[in-house]
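From the shared-data thread, chain only:
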Amino acid sequence: MKFKLYFTLTAILLFCLVFAVPNPLFAQRGGVDALISELDALLKKSEKSKMVTPEFLTDAKKILKKYRPVVQQKLLIDTFSDGNYTHNPTWEVLQGKFRIDGHGSLFSIVGNSDVTLQMQKGGLVPKKSLQNNEYGQLKGLMQVLSGEGKTAKSQKSVKRYVIHTAVQTPNSFDFALNFRAGIDKGQAEVGLYIDSPQKKGYRLLLSADPMVSQSISLVRYEQGSSRVLRGAGGVYLGNGLTHQIRWQRLESGLMNVWIDGIKMLQVKDPSFWNGFSGIVLANEQGEFAFDNVVLGSGKE
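Structure, as C-alpha cells:
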C-alpha cells in the first residue's frame, strides 16, 4: 500500500511537469495552485490513516514546497483611475508637463507646440487600425497648421520631460506597464533608479521611430555615464496602439523584457545589489502615455 501511494504521487508530479502544465485545460482547472492543494489534501489523508512512513511524508512535503508558487509582493500599483498623479502614489514632475488624458493614462507630449491631438483627448483603443491612427495624426497636424486646439504657449526650451515616484524596491523586481506612442518619433524611458532619478539605475529605452535599428534598449546608468547592456529591433512602438511592457530582474541579476508577451531582451548584469529607490518615466521628443503601472518583488 505504501509503495502504491508513493508511486501514485510520483506519477502525478511527473505527469503534470511533462504534459499538464503546457495544456490549456490544466490552466482552466486551476493550474499549479489547484494541483498542489489536491496533493496537500492527499498527504493529510495519508498521514491520518498512517498509510505512509514519516520519512516519505517529509520528503513529499519538501517537494510540494519547492514547486509551490511564490506569492509576489506588490510594491506599487497605479492605474491613474483617480484622475491624478499627485497622490496615492505621489509622482513628482522633475521637468516638463504631464497630465491625465481621456483614457485615464499618464500623458505627455514634447514638441515645438503644446497642442491637443487625438491621443491626448483619449488615445486610440488598441484594436483600431493603423489607417485610423494615421487619419488621427493627419487631423491633429491640420489642427496645428490652422491654429486650432492650442492649449499653451510654445515650449521650445524643454525637450525632455521627466517624472518619478519613490518606492523602495529589492534587488529583484517584476515591473509591468502599458505604453502608447501617438506619433512615430521620440523616445520614452522607464526605469528604476538608486537615490537620484537622474543618475543611477536601469532604464528601458522605448523608441517610437520605425527607422531606428534598436526599438528597445536596456541601459545601465552609473557615475555619470551610461552603458547599453542589450538592444533589439523588430517591434514598431509608434503606431498609436497600446503595448504591454514587462521587465523582470532576478536576484542573480538576470533580466528579461517582454513586449506584448514576446520576450525581446535577456541579459545578466549583477552591478546593483542593494535595491532601488523608485520608478522614473521620461519622454524625449515624443507623444507618450503610460498606464497600469505595477511593480512587484521579483522571484527566481
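The CA atoms of residues 153 and 209 lie 26 Å apart.
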